[in-house]
Amino acid sequence: MKHLLALAVFSTLAACGSTPGPVCLSCEWPASPADPDDYKDITQEWTRTDALRTTYQEVLEVHATLKSPEWRAAFAARDAEHRRLTGAAKDQRMAQAKAESEGPYEVEMMVTTWDRRENDLDHGKRSVWHVVLVDDAGNEVEPLEIVKDKRPEHVVRADFPAYGDFATAYIARFPRESNVLGPGVKQLRLRMSGSRGGVELVWDAK
Predict the structure, then answer these.
(1) Rounded to whole angstroms, how far apart are CA atoms 81 and 35?
(2) Fewest CB within a 10 Å sphere: which of 25, 51, 91, 130?
(3) According to the model, what pLDDT value does residue 23 have?
(4) Per DSSP, what are the bridge partners of residue 71?
(5) Are 152 and 142 in contact (CB under 8 A)?
(6) Residues 108-117: what's their mean pLDDT?
(7) Alpha-carbon distance 54 to 20, whole Å?
(8) Which sequence spans correspond to the domains of the chain?
C-alpha cells in the first residue's frame, strides 16, 4: 500500500512540472566549450515526461532524456570537472563524448509502471511495450536495442534527476542513419505503446 501511495504522489508531482521549451534539433557539436554548471539546466531542457492513466490507476510514467550533442558536451564537461581532468586528459574526454554523439542516437528512459511485471523494456520483442522514435516525416524508427542502465541508483539519479524511487532506467539506442536530428528537422517524438494505450514525448525545434 505504501508503494502505491508513494507512486501516486510521485506521479502527481511529476505531472505538475513545467513543460520544457523548444530545443535545437539541427545543432551539431557545440562550437564553444561547455560549462559544467549548465549540465542540470541542459538535462532539464532535453527531458520530456508523459504518463498513461486509466479510470482507476496510473499505468505508466516515462521521463526521457534525449542525449543530443549539446547534452553530451555538457555531460562530458561536468564529468571532466568532477574527475579534475585538465589538459590532454580533458581534451580526450571531450573527444570521446563527441565521438559518442556521432554514433547511434540514445535516449535515457526512466520508466515507472503500476504493475512492476510490466517494466520490461529490456525484453525486446517480448516486452509488453513497443518503443519507437517518430521522425519529422512520421516514420517510425525501431530501436537497435533497449538495455537497463545498470549503474548504481545514486549515480543514475545524479545524472538524471527525474529518476524516481520506483523507476527503472533504460538506455534506448536507435540507428544513426535515420532522419532523427539534423538540418530542417522540426519535431521528434518518442512513442511507447501497449495494449492499454501509450504515451508520446515530443521535442519541438526552435
Answers:
(1) 10
(2) 91
(3) 97
(4) none
(5) no
(6) 95
(7) 25
(8) 2-204
